[in-house]
From TrEMBL:
It catalyses: 4 Fe(2+) + O2 + 6 H2O = 4 iron(III) oxide-hydroxide + 12 H(+). Belongs to the ferritin family. Prokaryotic subfamily. This is Ferritin. Its EC number is 1.16.3.2. Iron-storage protein. It comes from the Bacteria. Keywords: Cytoplasm, Iron, Iron storage, Metal-binding, Oxidoreductase. Residues 1-145 form the Ferritin-like diiron domain. Pfam families: Ferritin (PF00210).
Length: 165
């Protein structure tokens, strides 16, 4: 049985993962609208991945006798200055999620909740992958520049990455 405080913190994270999913789904709409079809596909696939993050937490909370609670989810930003700005935002957002996961792991450890601490290890390594992934995309766009031709190829790459994800 989890401590109520831990359940509350895990529930906050459930909401954060929902927000991540909505943010990336909304971003896919912006990409689609601007003709970046590969990026749209990539963001859509990533929105699904975030739902997986949400579900894994949801299952853990209910399996350990807690009650998952879905709160209000803030509307995500819908307008972006450029494809680079959009991906810079994803990278910042993932850094924020890493911080939240670290706080959760710290809380679990200091409360001697080793089951939750162990459960969270998956998120610790996933966040490493998430940051690496989004940083690589930001770096790529910065490297090739933002003219139409360069972005055309970045978009093609993202389409391929969406298939591999
Ligand atoms: Fe993108 O890792 Fe969950 O939120």
């Amino acid at each position: 049985m989890l401590a109520q405080k831990m359940i509350d913190q895990l529930n906050d994270q459930i909401n954060m993962e929902f927000f991540s999913s909505n943010l990336y789904l909304q971003m896919s709409a912006w990409c689609e609208d601007k003709g970046f079809e590969g990026a749209a596909k990539f963001m859509r696939a990533h929105a699904d991945e975030e739902m997986g993050h949400m579900q894994r937490l949801f299952t853990y909370v209910s399996e350990t006798g807690g009650m998952p609670l879905l709160g209000t989810i803030e509307a995500p930003q819908a307008e972006f200055a450029s494809l680079l700005a959009l991906f810079e935002y994803t990278y910042e957002h993932e850094q924020l999620i890493t911080k939240k996961i670290n706080e959760l792991a710290h809380a679990a450890f200091t409360n001697q909740d080793y089951s939750t601490f162990n459960f969270l290890q998956w998120y610790v390594s996933e966040q490493h992958e998430e940051e690496k992934l989004f940083k690589s995309i930001v770096d790529k766009i910065r490297l090739v520049g933002e003219d139409g031709k360069a972005l055309f190829f970045v978009d093609k790459d993202l389409a391929q990455m969406a298939v591999e994800e």
